[in-house]
Every structure is written in C-alpha cells, then in structure tokens.
UniProtKB/TrEMBL annotation:
InterPro entries: Glyco_trans_13, Glycosyltransferase_13, Nucleotide-diphossugar_trans. It catalyses: N(4)-(alpha-D-Man-(1->3)-[alpha-D-Man-(1->3)-[alpha-D-Man-(1->6)]-alpha-D-Man-(1->6)]-beta-D-Man-(1->4)-beta-D-GlcNAc-(1->4)-beta-D-GlcNAc)-L-asparaginyl-[protein] (N-glucan mannose isomer 5A1,2) + UDP-N-acetyl-alpha-D-glucosamine = N(4)-{beta-D-GlcNAc-(1->2)-alpha-D-Man-(1->3)-[alpha-D-Man-(1->3)-[alpha-D-Man-(1->6)]-alpha-D-Man-(1->6)]-beta-D-Man-(1->4)-beta-D-GlcNAc-(1->4)-beta-D-GlcNAc}-L-asparaginyl-[protein] + UDP + H(+). It comes from Trichinella papuae. It is found in: Golgi apparatus membrane. Its main location: Golgi. This is Alpha-1,3-mannosyl-glycoprotein 2-beta-N-acetylglucosaminyltransferase. It comes from the Eukaryota.
Length: 510
C-alpha cells in the first residue's frame, strides 16, 4: 500500500515538473521570437523614419518591451522553482503523516471491533426511539383522519329510511386483552382514547395477563383514563407432551374466561366490546358498535357483532363503507357480545382454542354475526409476534383494509339486518344473479353487475377460493364470511356470490 502510494506521488510530481518545463520552454521561445521581431522595426526606424522625435518614441517602447520580456522570463522561472519546492515539501509532509497514523492491526483490531459493537448498540437504541416516534405519528394520523372524515364524509341512508338516533342508558365497555407487548398496548390505547366519543358511554378496561412488567408500566401511565385488571393465575397449564407447544392458546382461553367473568358477573355490565392489543381501529369504530348494539339486543338469532371482514383485502371489497352483512362464521378480532351469551357459554368454556370452539354447532346454534364490507379493525405489525407466530399474517391478515371514511350508522335504518328481513333480501339478490364462469368475470364481461359462481362440495369451493384469493379454510363446515352457504366477494369490479348448487339446507361440519 505504501509503495503504491509513493509511486503514485512520484508520477504526479513528474507530470507536474514536465508540464512546468514545457510551459517554461514555450515562454522562452515566445520571448525569443518577440525579441528578434523587435530588432527589425528598430533598424527600420533608424533608416526610414526621418522624424527624430518619432524614432526616439518607438525606440523607447521597444526598449521597454525587451525589459518586460526579460522580467517575465525571470518571474516564470521563479514561479516554477517555487512550485517545485512546494511539491517536495508536500510529499515530505504526506509521508510523515502517513507514518504517524499507521495502525498496528494486531493491537488495534480488537479495539475497533469493540467500537463497532458499541456503535451497533447505539444504532439499535436510535431505531427503538424512531419506532416510538413512528407510533406518535400513527396517532397523529388517526387524529387527522378523525377530524377530516367525521366532518366531511357522511354516509347516511335515504331520509325516508332513517331511524331515530340510538339512545341507551347502558354503558358499553371496551375490554382490551393484553399480555407482554408494551409498544402494542400503547398504540392501541392511544387510538381508543383518541377516537372514543364518550368516556361515560365507552369505559375502557384493560385486562393484563403474563405479569409482564414493561407492559404493566405502560398500562399504568393510562390509569387516569382506564380501569386496569390483572389475571391472577400465572401457573403453567397442565398439558400432555403433545399439547405443550400449544400452551399459549390455553393461557389465552383462561385469560378470556377470567376477564369476561369480571366484566359480566363482578362489574355487572350487560354487553362488552372485546379488542386485543395488536389491533388498529377505524375512525367510526365506536359509531359502528353503537348503531348495531340494538340489533344484537333485539335479534336472538345474532350472537355477535364483529368489526372484522375475513376477506377484507382491498382488491376484494367494494368501496361501500356503509355496507353490512350477516355471516354464519364467527369473525372475532374486535367483537361485541351480551351477558346472556356469556351466561350460556361460560359454564362450558374450553381450556384452549376458544375461537374455534365458539364456531362449532353446539355453541353457534344456527346463529349469525354482523360484519362490515370494509373492516373496522386491522392487524398491526405487532400481530406478527403473538402466540400464533404470525399465522396467516403475511398471506392474509396484513392486507385487510381498514376503513377511513366515517359512516354515521346511528342515523341509518339498519332493520334490514334483522333475520326475517335479511334472509328475504339476501336470497333475492343471490337468486336473481345469473350463473357465470370465472373466465367471464376475469374478461370483464360482467363489470358493475351481480353474478353467481356455483360449487357442489367443499373441494370445489376451495378451488374457487384459491383462484380468487379468498381464505379457503372452513370451521365446522362454514366458509369464512358465508351466510347460508353463500360467500359474497367483490372481484374484477363485479359482485360475486359463490353459492352452493341447489337449495341450501345446512352446513356439513364433517
């Protein structure tokens, strides 16, 4: 390395010296030419010009020119000399500095590695701080959405179809399930507190499991605005070797049972909205539940209201934030239930996998949930680090679109969602839709219309779902978002009803 640097310096110095000598040679030739040329007019002036005064004037000028040329030659030589001296001094200084900063890598390398490790730690801390700042920015974005959309976009029914605004004396608490994700619970609580229209109507209760101190510290900073309860049983579930890897699901079921017992039996609430710390909420999250509450109370064929659309990816939904459906599939992920349902379920609550259990026929008992076309909850990045280890997150959950337009549901007549009304309306829409092929839809032949695609068995449904991009799994024979066997989806700007062949009777849970 030193030799190559020295060689490069010699080359640069040689080039500069050659350039300087070339300039000097050129100047010398130029001066010589001018000197010779100046002698000719001198002789010419001496012989041809009769006027003594004129000859004297020209001779003075020529003498001055010769003096100036000699002076320039002297200055240029001095200039080249000083440039050469400066280059030599620069080279000497360069090598002195190079010697002084030379590194003994045998001794210095460990120190350098330690510095790099320390720097990496500092960068990691800065990244964490950046994450906290991004959380604050997320909250600011939600605030902007709330003020923009609540004051500008107002989806309401036709004036003749409006019902009186909902007026209830009961409170609707929000139960937040938390465990060991401090950043997640902070973001979730900030959104709930920001978008909550009334602290009196919607009290927030955080139930923490896991006894995770960093999460507890975050939750404690909100105690002025929320109620905090903690699941006391922190023992490990007694499981067989085969089931030990699912211990997290058993802890979750235990936590849900304890928390819902507190809400309904100790605090005496009549209904509750259940959320989890890894969920984002829409600007009209509370409005949605406030308006559908009376349906849940009035219609015994409903057993939940859910803010979630399992097939709510942006490419598969219509831009109709006011559109609501009934579904036979329990969606969860931001849902409301009543004390009557909990009285029914709590005595037989399972030890694990409660969300699959609640979808089974003995619990569902032919009842439905209400769900939106555009989800009022969405999965945050924190959903990747839960008990499920990000199951379905990359493929489905992260692409669920969160509604951003405020819909004034409480000013709308939602009685079309009651069982006797909805079954007639939905069946009419499905039966009137022509039966077409997937190829015809993909070719754009049915854009803007409603159509049907038929399936004869579970395998055919799964094949269709995979082509379209739907979640193709079933629980107790019920496809996600299905109502009476029909799965509605918005595909190639066409309302598609994926329907069973013939008259629907019931689901085959086998």
């Amino acid at each position: 390395m030193r030799f190559s640097t020295f060689l490069l310096s010699i080359i640069l110095f040689t080039n500069c010296l050659v350039f300087a000598l070339s300039v000097n040679r050129t100047l010398c030739l130029l001066f010589t030419h001018l000197s010779v040329a100046s002698d000719y007019p001198s002789a010419w002036l001496a012989e041809e010009v009769p006027n003594v005064h004129v000859r004297f004037s020209f001779c003075c000028r020529l003498w001055t020119g010769k003096y100036t040329m000699n002076l320039l030659r002297f200055v240029s030589l001095r200039h080249i000399f000083f440039i050469t001296i400066i280059w030599l001094l620069a080279l000497i200084l360069f090598y002195r500095l190079h010697e002084s900063v030379s590194i003994d890598y045998g001794k210095e390398l460990p120190k350098m590695l330690n510095k790099i490790i320390k720097l990496e730690k500092e960068i990691s801390e800065q990244n964490k701080e950046a994450g906290r700042l991004l959380e604050r920015l997320d909250n600011d974005k939600f605030a902007q959405k709330w003020f923009i959309f609540s004051n500008s976009t107002d989806y309401t029914a036709h004036p003749d179809d409006r019902d009186a605004p909902l007026s209830i004396g009961d409170k609707i608490p929000v139960l937040v399930m938390a465990c060991n994700r401090p950043a997640a619970i902070r973001v979730h609580l900030n959104q709930l507190l920001l978008l909550r229209p009334s602290p009196e109507l919607f009290p927030i209760i955080v139930s923490q499991d896991c006894d995770h101190q960093p999460t507890s510290q975050v939750i404690d900073t909100y105690r002025d605005s929320i109620t905090v309860i903690k699941q006391p049983n922190q023992t490990e579930p007694i499981l067989s070797k085969k089931l030990k890897k699912f211990a997290g699901y058993y802890k979750i079921a235990r936590h849900y049972r304890w928390a819902l017992n507190q809400i309904f039996f100790n605090m005496k609430y009549k209904t509750v909205i259940v959320t989890e710390d890894d969920l984002q909420i829409a600007v009209d999250f509370f409005e949605f539940f406030l308006a559908t509450y009376k349906l849940l109370i009035a219609d015994s064929s409903l057993y939940c209201i859910s803010a979630w659309n399992d097939n709510g990816q942006e490419v598969m939904i219509e831009d109709r934030p006011d559109l609501l459906y009934r579904t036979d599939f329990f969606p969860g992920l931001g849902w409301m239930l009543t004390r009557e349902l909990w009285k029914e379920l709590s005595p037989k609550w399972p030890n694990g996998f409660w969300d699959d259990w609640i979808r089974d026929p003995p619990q569902r008992r032919g009842r439905s949930c209400i769900r939106p076309e555009i989800s009022r909850t969405a999965m945050s990045l924190y959903g990747k680090s839960g008990v499920s280890k990000g199951l379905f997150y990359e493929k489905h959950l992260k692409s669920i679109k969160l509604n951003t337009k405020f819909v004034r549901f409480t000013a709308m007549n939602l009685t079309y969602l009651l069982k006797e009304n909805y079954e007639k309306l939905f069946s009419s829409q499905v039966n009137q839709a022509p039966v077409v092929s997937l190829n015809a839809i993909q070719a754009g032949l049915w854009t803007g219309k409603s159509v049907r695609i038929l399936y004869r068995n579970a395998k055919e449904f799964v094949d269709i779902a995979k082509i379209i991009g739907l979640m193709d799994d079933m629980k107790a024979g019920v496809p996600r978002t299905a109502f009476r066997g029909v799965v509605p989806v918005y595909y190639y700007k066409t309302r598609v009803f994926i329907s069973p062949v013939g008259e629907w009777k019931n689901y085959d849970d086998n």
